[in-house]
Specification:
five-stranded mixed beta sheet; DNA repair; globular; DNA damage; hydrolase; Uracil-DNA_glycosylase-like_sf; 11 helices; 9 strands; 312 residues; Uracil-DNA Glycosylase, subunit E; 37% helix; pyrimidine-specific mismatch base pair DNA N-glycosylase activity; alpha/beta
């Protein structure tokens, strides 16, 4: 049965502009732990308070509607059979300035056939805010035309499209267009899963030779691994080859550019990995951009991306 004081406040709380009623409601809700309240205000602020049996939903600026239920509504989950979804093809050429390597395609990436396609994935937000495309193009144009030549040609159709990308920002639908600017995409595994954890250890290890071959064939200058787990699999593959007992941990691993550290065994593995790649290749390990992973603040992720972009 509804708490009497709560019922009284609800009956009087008819308008969002009624500050007194709002205050009364908030005071009552603080004292009740067994009722679930979902209060949606028409301003940009949302206040979510856990209450067991009452859901309050504002419909307009002037009125509010109250729905009372003995049991909260539960969202229906639809199970997806990823075995029926297609692999996501890679995007490579023979002279990549930058190659992004993901763990494997998610459901939305497989369905849409574009990399990092889920709306909650932070990849494209980081890509744009770090000015990655601009840095890649500036580097290439200056190399082609000389230091004192302008970066963009206003009469060049390709440059007009490029200007559009730079002004509006890139998204998943542009992934295959970016190959024009020597930016490519691949994955450790091409098979789609809901979560990366669904890939077997054997499957991940078996894909390392293919990934190394792609880096060599694309002559990639910079390889960015989107997810620490990818680097962990690479380390596992090559430490087995070298017969080294080694564990990657917080003491020897650092985000960003993969470079030698104080750990001699780790350095031996790193040297061996780089020996398999073109001499000019640099590897970076970044946190996953998936919306399912939130182990690092966005500002910290962006700093890593900006450092990489500035080093191109």
């Amino acid at each position: 049965m509804m708490n009497k004081s709560l019922k009284t406040v609800i009956e009087t709380f008819k308008y969002e502009g009624d500050d007194k009623a709002k205050k009364n409601l908030e005071n009552v809700l603080k004292s009740i732990k067994s009722v679930k309240v979902n209060k949606r205000v028409t301003s940009s602020r949302r206040l979510l308070t856990k209450v067991k049996s009452t859901s309050i939903i504002h419909k307009s600026n002037a009125s509010a509607t109250y729905n009372v239920s003995n049991s909260p509504l539960k969202a229906q989950k639809v199970k997806i059979d990823t075995s029926k979804l297609p692999d996501l093809r890679h995007s490579l050429n023979s002279n990549l300035k930058l190659l992004f390597v993901g763990y494997n395609p998610g459901v939305q990436s497989s369905i849409q056939q574009h990399h990092y396609a889920h709306h909650s994935n932070l990849f494209w937000k980081l890509f744009n805010q770090a000015n990655v495309l601009q840095r890649v193009v500036q580097k290439r144009k200056k190399k082609e035309n000389g230091m004192h030549q302008k970066v963009f040609d206003d009469d060049d159709d390709d440059d007009k499209y490029l200007k559009t990308l730079l002004s509006t920002g890139c998204s998943a639908i542009h992934d295959f267009d970016l190959i024009k600017y020597d930016i490519g995409f691949s994955d450790l595994s091409l098979r789609c899963t809901v979560r990366a954890e669904e890939l077997t250890s054997e499957e991940k290890i078996a894909n390392i030779p293919r990934l190394i071959r792609e880096i060599n064939e694309s002559n990639a200058e910079n390889v960015v691994l989107i997810g620490k787990g990818i680097w962990e699999v690479i380390v596992k593959f090559y430490k087995a080859q070298l017969g080294i007992k080694f564990q990657l941990n917080k003491d020897n691993f650092q985000w960003g550019q993969i470079a030698e550290s104080k750990d001699k065994q780790y350095n031996q593995i790193i040297e061996h990995v780089y020996a398999q790649l073109p001499k000019h290749t640099t590897i970076y390990a970044f946190p996953s951009t998936s919306g399912l992973v939130a182990s690092m603040k966005f500002s910290e992720k962006l700093r890593l991306w900006q450092e990489m972009a500035n080093n191109l």
